[in-house]
From TrEMBL:
InterPro entries: ACX4-like (IPR045008), Acyl-CoA_DH_CS (IPR006089), Acyl-CoA_Oxase/DH_mid-dom (IPR006091), Acyl-CoA_Oxase/DH_mid-dom_sf (IPR046373), AcylCo_DH-like_C (IPR036250), AcylCo_DH/oxidase_C (IPR009075), AcylCoA_DH/ox_N (IPR013786), AcylCoA_DH/ox_N_sf (IPR037069). Residues 26-137 form the Acyl-CoA dehydrogenase/oxidase N-terminal domain. This is Glutaryl-CoA dehydrogenase. It comes from Agromyces rhizosphaerae. GO terms for molecular function: acyl-CoA dehydrogenase activity; flavin adenine dinucleotide binding. Residues 141-234 form the Acyl-CoA oxidase/dehydrogenase middle domain.
């Protein structure tokens, strides 16, 4: 038996990977994926419901994510081995299929936080931050959305940055900022009062004038510590301004890359719901036989699996395009819009299979059903992503 065959045997395909897309990964990627999957199944899955119910993040598992090479896998200076865009995307799927909240924690730190520095930072900034972030010694957050601005942040950003010698003074507010209550640093995006351009700043926490207050009473992604941030005359040295970010156009590069990651997260949410519904349908007996034997149940399962398969196929091509340098904003936007729409339909079908039991945490469906709503909305709403695609199709912007 060859090494590749051994690796594939050790890392079986997911039940939801109907066309076997995972098998296109290299043997080394397969082996790494297998280790990550074992960790997720053995250490994260048993506590996911409890942490979600308590609205807490499983931060004690951050060192394990770092040890397994999840952080910094995209960048030459921090990755543990050469890997592909598809491998990194599949890791996001694997985490989301077990716990979408933990996938968001990882995505904020590893995607938004590290990518901001890798894309927008100077060589000195990358040397200072990338290694510690990859090792999980420093946790990052990303502050773009504001109380009054979500979809229109490109033009409506109100947080300001004023140059004062070798320092900047930041004032404003941010909302829905994941990881912010425990992050060691937050990338804050603010409008330069001198040239009206958006710039990025590394704010080390705690900082004088910086407060992060957890948003309570959430009913989706409860394991994510979203916060309201207030910045009152927060002083940031010039050396902590992202040196290669001079406008929102530069920031858009970061968003393009991370939006593709959210598309894979959406697939993972759908996969988690599908796996739970499939297992439930085989165990739940009604009228003397498992409900999996009924035509209507099988139709729902087949539709859910078709949605997942179509979404994976789209995103596999998107990953290829990223590797080829051919991925553009409208490609990521289409993938995020389509996969989240399919996810929403899929989790609803899967919840329906479980009937009333589908709304209880104990049956493995309620978390995915609730968490899907947040994934559907963040990193660009469905409507905004569709309009980005519409602009690419027609050459006419339907928004300003």
């Amino acid at each position: 038996m060859t090494d590749q065959m051994t690796t594939l045997t050790e890392t079986p395909l997911l039940a939801a990977d109907f066309y076997g897309f995972q098998s296109t990964l290299t043997p080394e990627e397969q082996a790494s994926l297998g280790r990550i999957r074992a960790f997720l199944e053995g250490e994260l899955k048993p506590i996911a419901d409890e942490y979600w119910d308590r609205a807490e993040s499983a931060v004690h598992l951050i060192p394990r994510f770092a040890e397994l090479g999840v952080f910094g896998a995209a960048w030459p200076e921090t990755r543990q081995f050469e890997n592909s865009e598809l491998y990194r995307a599949w890791v996001a799927l694997e985490i989301a299929r077990v716990d979408p909240s933990s996938c968001t924690l990882v995505g904020v730190h590893n995607g938004l936080g590290m990518t901001s520095i890798a894309v927008g930072g100077s060589e000195e900034q990358k040397a200072e931050w990338m290694g510690p972030m990859a090792r999980g010694e420093v946790i990052g957050a990303f502050g773009l959305t504001e109380p009054g601005h979500g979809s229109d942040t490109a033009r409506g950003l109100e947080t300001t940055a004023t140059r004062r010698g070798d320092e900047w003074v930041l004032n404003g507010a941010k909302r829905w900022i994941g990881n912010a209550t425990f992050a060691d640093m937050v990338i804050i995006w603010a409008r330069d009062t001198a040239d009206d351009q958006v710039k990025g700043f590394i704010v080390r926490t705690p900082a004088i004038g910086f407060t992060a207050t957890k948003i309570e009473r959430k009913q989706s992604l409860r394991g994510v510590q979203n916060a309201d941030i207030v910045l009152e005359d927060v002083v940031v040295p010039e050396r902590d301004r992202l040196q290669r970010i001079d406008s929102f156009r530069d920031l858009a590069v970061v968003l393009r890359l991370t939006r593709a990651g959210v598309a894979w997260q959406a697939i993972g949410v759908a996969v988690g719901a599908y796996e739970a519904a499939l297992a439930y349908s085989k165990e739940r007996v009604q009228f003397g036989k498992p409900i999996a034997s009924y035509q209507l149940t099988q139709e729902k399962l087949a539709t859910a699996l078709s949605n997942i398969t179509a979404s994976i196929a789209m995103c596999v091509r998107l990953a290829e395009m990223e590797g080829e340098g051919e991925q553009h904003d409208h490609h990521s936007a289409m993938a995020k819009a389509f996969t989240t729409k399919m996810m929403r339909e899929t989790v609803a079908l899967c919840r329906e299979i479980a009937g009333g039991n589908g709304i209880q945490l104990d049956h493995g469906l309620a978390r995915f059903f609730a968490d899907a709503e947040a994934v559907y909305t963040f990193e660009g709403t469905y409507d905004m992503n569709q309009l980005i695609v519409g602009r690419a199709i027609t050459g006419i912007a339907a928004f300003r």
